[in-house]
Design brief:
Length: 287
């Protein structure tokens, strides 16, 4: 298949968007996209009716293959596993490549919830609900019947039903996080009780490379106690700011000009339901 520079620039954002959502890893997604383009050069042009659809099929199936080995890695992973955060600057709502990423299904909460899905459920849900492919196209991508794809989608949506209530209103969420920071710093218990659910859970991802909780932290009291302990033990010189992470506001901590850790949130009904503290240096963006 002939792939021009224009083709590469046009299709790469779409393929990365699919792969990143499928795998929850920037590095793995980039590798899959590069492998897809390399293999595309070896495909007979006469086999290709629609170049975009063919590339999407290739990247989807490459991700399905990758998920088989990824599941083993997740099982052997030390402590909770958080998706690799995408740290952005100012949101450009006119850039076509960024608009693909801005679509629903990129928040850390959504990507983490995807871990509860089987690979084919993950593929069908994303291709249908996020990228709006037809059932006919999806059936061709994953080589299953259309009716089967509909059943797979229904099953997948039931498994992640809770995430449908996630707030994706950026400015409202940023305001809530700011209130949480101020209440946390001043130990304003009354405000904190309003902002965090009683059964809030914190997933601390150090990957065995950085000291982190090896099990999820459950309940408001335990989560707050853990966060106070983390702040107390933080190296001198650490500072933070609210940044655009996966197109949602998150607290990014810096040390010596580098990203030290990222705290992301699952916000629902104006309350924080889950927190995702990513400390593993392999998952933190380089500035």
């Amino acid at each position: 298949m002939q792939i021009s520079n224009e083709d590469y620039e046009q299709f790469k954002p779409l393929l990365f968007s699919i792969a990143y959502r499928m795998l929850g890893s920037i590095v793995e997604a980039e590798d899959v996209v590069q492998e897809t383009f390399l293999k595309a050069y070896q495909v007979n042009e006469q086999q290709v009716v629609n170049k975009k659809a063919y590339l999407c099929k290739m990247v989807t199936n490459r991700c399905l293959d990758e998920l088989k080995s990824v599941r083993l890695k997740r099982e052997q992973y030390i402590g909770p596993w958080n998706p690799e955060p995408l740290l952005f600057g100012k949101i450009d709502r006119t850039d076509p490549s960024e608009m693909l990423l801005q679509k629903e299904g990129i928040s850390i909460a959504f990507l983490r919830m995807m871990e509860h899905l089987a690979p084919d459920e993950r593929a069908v849900l994303l291709l249908r609900e996020v990228f709006e492919f037809s059932y006919e196209e999806i059936a061709n991508f994953i080589e299953k019947k259309e009716d089967n794809c509909r059943k797979i989608l229904s099953r997948a949506k039931q498994k992640i039903l809770r995430i449908e209530n996630e707030s994706l209103a950026y400015e409202e969420n940023k305001s809530l996080i700011n209130r949480f920071i101020h209440a946390f710093q001043s130990q304003n218990t009354e405000t904190i009780l309003k902002l965090i659910t009683e059964d809030v859970t914190l997933f601390s991802d150090g990957g065995g490379k950085i000291n982190a909780a090896i099990r999820p932290i459950l309940s408001r009291a335990h989560v707050l106690s853990y966060l106070y302990g983390v702040i107390k033990k933080a190296p001198e010189g650490v500072y933070f700011d609210i940044e655009n992470v996966n197109y949602q506001p998150a607290i990014v901590f810096y040390l010596d000009g580098k990203v030290h850790s990222i705290l992301s949130f699952y916000i629902c009904h104006n309350q924080i339901n889950e927190m995702y503290l990513t400390l593993n240096p392999d998952k933190l963006p380089l500035l």
